[in-house]
Structures are given as structure tokens and as C-alpha cells.
Amino acid sequence: MPPSPLATRPSARPTLPSFQQVYAESAAFVWRTLRRLGVRDADLEDVSQETFVVVHRKLAEFDGGAAVRTWLFGICRRVASDYRRKAHVLRETTVAELPEGTQAPEQVEVVARRQARALLDRLLDELDEDKRAVFVLFELEQWPMAEVAQAVGCPVQTAYARLYAAREWVQRAVARARAEGGER
């Protein structure tokens, strides 16, 4: 099966994918990316839709200078940044208390995963935008560093430096959260 045109760098004269193709192959990526860039779960549907409105409007202008998913990440980054700047966005903290009573082992695992995800989301909210973008693309989306650097618009070595700083910060923050009892 040939690789998706959305995941590979296009040739000099790219054939533009259709909006339907971009949506079908990228909806999950856009959803994950927006969530990891600070969009609350309650707002993900609306912000994802807003992102694809921008994609639909700008698709004809896509010049193929980068891979489609790199271009999409840039749109996600701007839309998420605009979302976080809006005054109506409240910084909520989640309370992850288990209900009283017995729970099946799989329920305990589901709760533990939700708690871990909530902790990661809180920690990502505290990272500056440049480090967060590199961390999300490299560690969570598992992009090659060359593509990460292109997506965030910096040299590869700078992207590695941001990744190193983000990893160090996340490790210290997780240790602090565990010490405070926020993550067991």
C-alpha cells in the first residue's frame, strides 16, 4: 500500500489532495493535536471544526512547500493559540477522586489512564508554546525531528534543544506532582 500523500513531502509540482481526503486522513491527528495544544475536551469539537474551516478556505493556497500534515500542524497551532487567548477560556483543574465503593480492575485502569492524561494535559498547559509544540510532535505524535523542526519553523538543533528542555521540565513536574500526591 503506498504511503498517504498527507504523510510524505510532496514533489515539486504537487497534486492537491481534496478536502475530503485531508479530513478523512487527518481528523484524528487534528483532534489529538488541538487537545495537546491546550484545547479543553468540552471545546474540541468546535475548535476542530474551526480548524477544518480554515483548511477548507486555505487548501487552494497550499503550495506543497511542506508536507500536508506539517501545514495542518501550523493551522492547528494558530487556532489553538487563538483559542487559549480568548477571555472565555477558564483554566479549570480536574479533581480525580475515585467514587466510593468497589470497582472492577478494568475500571481502576481506566481511571488511572484518565488521571495520567489529565496530569499530562495540565503539564502541557504550563509549557511555553515553542517547547510544547516540539514535545507534542516528537514525543506524542512521533514525528521525525526534521519534520518537527520544519513544522515549528526552527533549525533542527534548536528543535532538539527545545525537546531536551521540555523533557527535563516534564520530568521535574511529574516528580513534583507525585510528591504532592497529585499523581499516584
Automatic annotation (TrEMBL):
<dbReference type="Pfam" id="PF08281">
    <property type="entry name" value="Sigma70_r4_2"/>
</dbReference>
<feature type="domain" description="RNA polymerase sigma-70 region 2">
    <location>
        <begin position="24"/>
        <end position="87"/>
    </location>
</feature>
<comment type="similarity">
    <text>Belongs to the sigma-70 factor family. ECF subfamily.</text>
</comment>
<dbReference type="InterPro" id="IPR014284">
    <property type="entry name" value="RNA_pol_sigma-70_dom"/>
</dbReference>
<keyword id="KW-0805">Transcription regulation</keyword>
<keyword id="KW-0238">DNA-binding</keyword>
<keyword id="KW-0731">Sigma factor</keyword>
<keyword id="KW-0804">Transcription</keyword>
<dbReference type="InterPro" id="IPR007627">
    <property type="entry name" value="RNA_pol_sigma70_r2"/>
</dbReference>
<dbReference type="InterPro" id="IPR013325">
    <property type="entry name" value="RNA_pol_sigma_r2"/>
</dbReference>
<dbReference type="InterPro" id="IPR013324">
    <property type="entry name" value="RNA_pol_sigma_r3/r4-like"/>
</dbReference>
<feature type="domain" description="RNA polymerase sigma factor 70 region 4 type 2">
    <location>
        <begin position="119"/>
        <end position="168"/>
    </location>
</feature>
<dbReference type="InterPro" id="IPR036388">
    <property type="entry name" value="WH-like_DNA-bd_sf"/>
</dbReference>
<dbReference type="Pfam" id="PF04542">
    <property type="entry name" value="Sigma70_r2"/>
</dbReference>
<dbReference type="InterPro" id="IPR013249">
    <property type="entry name" value="RNA_pol_sigma70_r4_t2"/>
</dbReference>
<protein>
    <submittedName>
        <fullName>Sigma-70 family RNA polymerase sigma factor</fullName>
    </submittedName>
</protein>
<dbReference type="InterPro" id="IPR039425">
    <property type="entry name" value="RNA_pol_sigma-70-like"/>
</dbReference>
